[in-house]
Each structure stands twice: as C-alpha cells, then as structure tokens.
Amino acid sequence: MFLYEVGEGVAHRSYGLNVARLANVPASILDVAATKSTELEEKIQKRRLAGLVSGVAAILANGDGGDHGDALLEQLAIGIELL
After folding, report:
1. Which residue among 4, 33, 38, 64 has its CA within the 20 to 30 Å range from the CA of 57?
2. How far is CA 35 from its chain centroid?
C-alpha cells in the first residue's frame, strides 16, 4: 500500500511503475517502462541544467541587473533545488 500526501507544487517522482507492479503488469512491460522513464528523467535533467546555464550566463552578462537580476537569481535558486 502507498500513502500519499497532497502538497503544493510539482511531483518530482512518478509512482506509476509501483502502481503497475501492484496491478500485476507483466515484468517485460515494466522493464520497458522503467527504461523509458529513466530516459525521460535524463532528458528533463539535461533541459533543466541547460536552463540553469542560460540563467547564469544572463546574470553574468547583466552584471548587477537590479530587480531583473534578483528575479534571475530567484529562478536560478529554484532550478538548482529541482536538480
């Protein structure tokens, strides 16, 4: 049995494979799903990292940046937390 807690924000993990196991989905299908899930997670991580690099570049290019720089720093901090 799984216990869930509803909270604000985005879920960082999917429990679909665990639910599929509980539903007795065949292992061969679970293996393919696990591989695809890993591939998708890696792709998302690469996109997030590219976004962080762009954010750092924007901060460096703008110097202090004033309020705009503060917003970029906030976005950067959030992006780092998501890694």
Report:
1. 38
2. 17
Three-state DSSP at 69 gives: helix
Total number of domains in the chain: 1
Is residue 14, in this structure, part of any structural domain at all? no
Tell me the residue type at 34: A
**Nearest 5°: CA angle at 61, between 59 and 64?**
55
Q: Which of 36, 76, 28 is nearest to 52 (CA)?
A: 76
User: Does 73 map to a domain?
Assistant: yes
Indicate the pTM of the whole model. 0.60
Q: Domain span at residue 72?
A: 38-83
Specify the residue for token string 């993990």: 13
Q: Is residue 69 part of a domain?
A: yes
